[in-house]
Structure formats: structure tokens, C-alpha cells
Design brief:
61% helix, two-stranded antiparallel ribbon, 109 residues
Length: 109
């Protein structure tokens, strides 16, 4: 399984490198408007801009997914532990023969 994961990351990295190298033309990005109707802008390669904004969109969703997965894993572990505890406390009560216990008769003296 680790080999498949590593191979997949190598393929994704190769695709990203190819994308950035094919889109190396610089494009202006207007960042913030100024008072004189100009903008603070910078020029970066189109591939880098695309990857940057993809990461800005993907990052929060990945973080939410990881926190939900962590929360659900903790909840499942807690429920499994409570079931184990409940099963271990019931086990001694059921130990013994299947026949019903005879009532104890008082001694007549």
C-alpha cells in the first residue's frame, strides 16, 4: 500500500511540475486597490498562481476533513471502550452453570 501511495505522489508531482513549466508566462495580479485608482499588483507565473489559489481553496476543506476524522475517531474509540467496560462488568455475573441457583433454606434448630 505504501508503494502505491508513493507512486501516486510521484505522478501528481510530475503533473504539477509539467503544468507550472508549461504556464511560465507572467501575469499581473491586482492585490489591493489604492486611493488613486491603481492597485497593488505583482507578476507571477500563471502556473504558480493557479497552484497557490488551488491550495488556498483546498486547504480549509482538508483541515475541516482532518478535524472531523479526528473527532469521529475519538468518538468511536470512546464508544468501543465503554462497550468493553460494560461487557467486562457483566461477564462475572453470568459465570457458572446454566441451572438456576437453589434458594438457601434456613436451618431449623
Amino acid at each position: 500500500m505504501q508503494f502505491i501511495r508513493t507512486a501516486l505522489w510521484i505522478v501528481v508531482t510530475a503533473i504539477l511540475v509539467a503544468f507550472v513549466s508549461m504556464n511560465w508566462d507572467k501575469a499581473p495580479v491586482n492585490l489591493w486597490p489604492l486611493e488613486d485608482n491603481n492597485y497593488i499588483h505583482f507578476q507571477w507565473p500563471v502556473g504558480i498562481i493557479a497552484i497557490l489559489f488551488f491550495a488556498l481553496g483546498f486547504g480549509p476543506m482538508w483541515f475541516i476533513n482532518r478535524t472531523n476524522r479526528w473527532r469521529l475517531t475519538r468518538r468511536i474509540t470512546s464508544l468501543e471502550n465503554s462497550i468493553r467496560i460494560a461487557a467486562s462488568t457483566e461477564a462475572p455475573a453470568n459465570v457458572g452453570s446454566d441451572a438456576p441457583a437453589k434458594p438457601v433454606e434456613p436451618n431449623e434448630s
